[in-house]
Design goal:
304 residues; 11 strands; 42% helix
């Protein structure tokens, strides 16, 4: 039977798709002749590939992998430049998006949990969704946003995500504790998180590098505007002033955020275009069909 599983390949976290006999409940595809494929997440190509040890491990994995999936053409080109022997086995499939906000979610309770004690009618909540690790750079906007909040107390930045890096998490908590208008919330169930996205004013991405941000695409699907740091992974899905807004520094972020707050027509246009973009290019049905075809190739290679 075919089974998609999350697996760690050496020192690099990759998602792996492997064809696994039903008798093996905990397979380790690498080095055991079990047919498998890998999915590039973004950090692997953008960051890990620059570290010699991780680059070597990923190269070995790609030698054995029957296929690899990249989210964008540019990610595919970067991977093939790093590991030329992978040419011919890298496919491009963008992430498919399906959002399921919890209909019973209580927005006011969430605001209380975030220690935001203001009327929900007069708030502009900017939501930054990320695991607490340096590549996501959750502190990038904190100082600039806090200064803006002191001018306009109804704007708040809420950072939501799991504590991935314990040392860095302590740094984030200490910084946020001192920053007016900035709050930090731990990991949430996906349906609750989607409900938070649907209720917030805008979703923010401040990462140093991205493959393809699911949070950005989910915000578009939920008809919420996006402000994203102008990096290749974000610029691949966010067209400035069309499907979202791109910023290159914290000051530009504040300028664009203020513009979005004061210009309902711009907000509406971005929301409509973002939703249409996701529908056209990030269908979960198309993604499913692609992976089903790739898994069938693994099944065929096992039969051979």
């Amino acid at each position: 039977m075919a089974r998609a599983a999350a697996a760690a390949c050496g020192s690099c976290s990759w998602r792996c798709c492997g064809h696994t006999p039903a008798t093996r409940s905990r397979p380790s595809a690498f080095g055991h002749r079990i047919p498998f494929g890998v999915i590039f997440g973004g950090t692997d190509v953008n960051e890990d590939a620059n570290q010699a040890e991780k680059n070597t491990v990923m190269g070995r994995v790609l030698e054995e992998a029957r296929f690899a999936v990249a989210f964008t053409e540019s990610m595919k080109e970067m991977a093939q430049a790093q590991w030329p022997h992978a040419k011919g086995k890298v496919y491009v499939q963008s992430q498919g998006i399906a959002t399921t906000p919890n209909a019973a979610f209580n927005w006011n309770t969430f605001l209380q949990r975030s220690e935001i004690n203001q009327s929900a009618d007069n708030l502009h909540i900017f939501l930054l969704i990320c695991g607490l690790r340096q590549v996501k750079d959750p502190l990038y906007l904190v100082d600039a946003f806090s200064a803006w909040h002191q001018e306009e107390p109804n704007v708040h930045l809420v950072i939501v995500g799991p504590e991935v890096d314990p040392v860095f998490t302590r740094e984030v908590k200490a910084k946020v504790k001192r920053a007016a208008g900035v709050r930090l919330i731990g990991e949430m169930p996906q349906e609750d998180l989607h409900a938070v996205v649907k209720n917030c004013f805008a979703v923010v991405n401040s990462s140093v590098s991205e493959g393809m941000s699911a949070a950005i695409l989910e915000a578009m699907d939920l008809e919420v505007p996006v402000l994203a740091r102008n990096i290749p992974g974000n610029a691949a899905v966010v067209k400035h002033e069309v499907t979202g807004l791109l910023f290159s520094n914290p000051q530009e972020f504040v300028h664009l955020a203020k513009r979005l707050v004061s210009d309902p027509a711009l907000e509406k246009e971005i929301v409509v275009n973002g939703r249409e973009y996701v529908r056209m290019y990030h269908s979960w049905q198309v993604e499913r069909d692609t992976y089903q075809q790739l898994i069938r190739k693994l099944e065929g290679s096992t039969e051979d």
